[in-house]
Structure formats: C-alpha cells, structure tokens
Amino acid sequence: MVSLRRRKADAPNPEGQMTFVEHLAELRMRIIRAGLAVLIGVVVVVLAWEWVFDLLTQPYAELCARRGDGYCGDAFDPATGDVTLNILDPIEGLATRLRVGFYGGLVLASPVVLWQLSKFIVPALHKNERKYAFGFVGSTVALFMLGGFIAFTTLERALEFLIDWSGEDVNQVFQVQAYIRLVTLMVVAFGVGFTIPVLLVFLQLLRVLSWRTLLGAWRYAIVGTFVIAAAITPSGDPISLLALSGPMVVLYFLAVLIGRIVQGRQPREDE
Question: Is the pTM higher than 0.90?
C-alpha cells in the first residue's frame, strides 16, 4: 500500500517522514515539471506540423498509390504522391493542429512525466513493492507503443475495407478532423488493449487472481477478448479486429505464465 512514508535521504525530519503540506509542495513541483515537458512537446509537434501531417496521412497515401485508377478520387495526386483532406469549418485546421500537438506532446513528454510520477510514488512504497513499480511502468509504456505501432501499420488495410464497402459510386472526400480522429482512436484503442495483460499480472501479484483461475477460463478469455476488441476498435473492420484480438490473446497467456512464475516464488520470498 502507498503510505506517506518517504526515504530518509529525502526527508526533512529525523523520522524520515514528510508532512501533508510538504507532500503537496512536492506534488506541485512534480506536476509543474511534467506540465513544462508536455508544453515543450506540444510546441515541437506544432512547429513540425507538416512532417507530422505527412506521417499521419501516409497510410492513406500508400493505399491510394497502390490501388491507383482514381481509387481515392481527387484526394490523391499521382504526381506528388500526396493526399488532400478537406476542411469544412474555418477553425477546424487550427483546432486539429492543436489537438494533434497535445497528443503528440504527451507522447514526447511521457518519459519525463513517468519519471516525475515515479519520483513521487516509488519512495513511499514498501521494499517488496518498489521492485515491481518500474517494471510495470516500463512494460505499460512499451506495450502501449507496440499497440499503437500495430494500429498504424494496419490502418491502410482498414481504410481499404471501409472505402470498398462504401460503394463504387461514392466519392471519397475525407475531412481532416474525422481522419485524424480515426487515427488517434485506433492508436489509443490498440494501446489500451495491449496493456490489459499488465493489469492481469498486477492482480496476480496481489493474489486477487491466480494463474490457475486465468488458465481455467481461457475459453471465456478468448471470446471476451474478441468482444472487447470489437467494442473498442473504432473502424469496426475485421482486419483491425484480428490485428488487435490476436496479440491480446497471446499476451493473455503470457500474463498467465508470468503469474505462475511470480506466484510460485512469493511463498519463498514471504518466508
């Protein structure tokens, strides 16, 4: 459990404890540092908007170039290989740039934010809890990034499925805000889905769940994984569904394996 204890090296009194006001002051300092890191990240993304926009529209441009023959209508320029998105609101361009800048700033500043968070929380944990803290933070970030990468690589196929099902007589005109929202939701959905096994490992460490229980419910877990993937996949296409649910099933069994290893060691460590 998290308590108000701090390490003696950081403590202002001989008992190695901080007052409530001192905790609030330290929390404010950590929040300010994390906020400045996010602000710097936002500025960087906004200044590099042209490069960021080309990166986000790359799957759409590659799809249009691969299919050719006016597949994307007037949105694709074969000479330059670029795609054109449309704005229907005067403030939409600025709002989209700021929104993407905020999300990108969070990603760029995530190491600093997590470091400040760990500097505030980890010293208050017990010794046997500290050794898992950095592992959970690192694995969560890594799995979220992996999920976002897979979402981005499957976006081209997802767009192709959606365009094909819209019909041949439909002119494809994508709005900037709608397209950016789809990309963002896809990345977030895949990232969150990939981090669910970390929660399962955490519950096993707390003895709330056992690896035997999870292994015995593997059939329900597979069905539930496909249901969750279908619910959180914003595009709703089968390609994205399989790309998300498949790795989630693998990570589920990996979480069971980790739980078996850890729970097998815990009685020995308690002794």
Answer: no
